[in-house]
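Field: COMPLEX_INPUT
Field: COMPONENT_COUNT = two
Field: RESIDUE_TOTAL = 478
Field: MODE = joint
Values follow.
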Amino acid sequence: LDLITDYEYSMALLYLVPVAMTATRAVLRWTLAMVVYAAATWFLADYLAIASPMPRQSALSLVWIGLIRLGTLAVVGVVVLRNQRTLQKLRAAIAELEAFSHSLAHDMRAPLRAMRSYAEILIREQSPALEKTPGRDYLQRIVSACARMDTLILDMLEYSRLARGEVPLEPVDAGALVRRMVASYPNLQAHQSGIHLEGEFPLLLANKAALVQCVSNLLGNAVKFVAPGTTPQVRVWAEKRDRTVRLWFEDNGIGIEKGSERRIFQLFQRLNAGYEGTGVGLGIVRKAVERMGGEVGVESEPGQGSRFWLQLKAADKHYEPSPLHPLRRRR
Amino acid sequence: MNQALCILYVEDDENDVFFMQRALDQAGVTNPFRVVNDGQIAIDYLAGAAAFADRIQFPVPSLVLLDLKLPRKSGLQVLAWVRQQPALLGVVIIVLSSSSQQGDIEQAYALGANAYVLKPPSEQARTDLVRAIKAFWLTFNEKAGQH
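Field: COMPLEX_OUTPUT
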C-alpha cells in the first residue's frame, strides 16, 4: 500500500508550510499573505481533487481534501490567535507607556517645586544684596520658567488622564454649564460682558468634566488670542443637526492662518509667539471630544476671528432631569 | 492655643521638609515639630515602637501632615493603620500630596483623612496654607481627649 506519492507530498506541503509560517511569524504582512493563501487553498482543494490521478470519489481523495480544508482552517485559526496575542501585547505595552509617562510627569513636579521655592527664597532673603544687579531678574526668570513648566506638566497630566480614564456620558445642559463657567472662572469672569450665549441649547450626551475642560480651553483661547487693545467679543450658540448638536464659539480674535486648521489641534503646536501658552490646550479639547465620541473643528480667516465648533450626540428627549442635578437646579 | 500639641510631618523629600519648616517659622507656629521620612517609620513613631518609646522626646502628634508617596509603606497604608488604632482616634490627619487624581483623593477620605491638600507650588502659597492650618486645625478645631 504505497499511499505517499509525489502528489500527496505536494498536498501535504500545501497546508503544512503556511501553518508553520503563520505560527512563527506574527508580522502583519505575513498574516495577510497567509489569509489570502488560506482562502486560495480552500478552493484549490476542489480543483486538485478533480485533477488528482485518483478516482474522484475514492476514500483517499476525500481524506486529502479533508486534510487541505483542515489545513486552511488551521492557518486561519493560527492567524487569529497570533493577532489576538499581538494586540494584547500591544495594548499592555501602551498602557505601561502611558502609566510610565504619567508618573514621570507627576514626579517631575517635586524637583520643579524645589527649584522654584529656592529661587523665591533667594529673592526674598537676599534682596538687599541683589539690589541693582541683574541677579534679581535672573531669579525672577527662574521662578516664571518653573511656573510655566509646572503648567505644562499639569496640562500633560490632564491630557493623559483624558486619554486613559473612563469618560462616561450623561445628558448635559451645555447652556447652563457655559453660563456657570463664565460666571465663576477667573480668566473668563473678567471678560464676562463680552461673552454672549444665544438661542436654545439642546441637551447633549457628554461627560461633564470633559466638556468643562473643552469649554474652558475654547473660551479661554477666545478671550486670550485677541489683538492688543481689542476687547474680546465671543458668541456661543448651539446648532441642532439631526441626532447631533454642534456648539459654536465665535470670537473676534487674531484668527488662524489657512492651512493650520488641523495642526492647531495637535499637541505642542503654538502658532503665535506673542501669547503665553503650552500648546496643549486644543490637544486636550480634541482628545476630550474624541473620547466623548464627537468631533471638533474650526473655521477662520486671519484677522477675522475664529469659529470653533464641537459636535456631540444629542441627548434623548425622554431624559428627565434628576432633582439632584446641579446644573438643572440652577434654573 | 495649646503649645504642647505636636505636629508630625511624614515626608521623604528633604526639600519639602525644609520648606515646611520655613513656612511654620514664618507663620509663627511654635508647636513641637517632628519629621519622619518613610511610611513604616511613621507607623513606628505613632505606635511608640522601641526607637520612639520616649514620649517626651517623641510626643503623640495631634496633627499629622502626611505625604502619599513614601518609601516602604505608602501614605494610604499609614492612614489605614492609624484609623484602626483606638488610641489614635483623635489624631487629625491632613494629606499633603502632589497628586490631584480623583482616585487618591477619594481613597484618602475613605480611609479617614480629615483633609486633603495639594502641595503648594510656591513659597507664598505654602505660608498661606500653614497659616490656615494654624488658624483652623491648631486653634478652632477641638482636639479629642489627648492628655
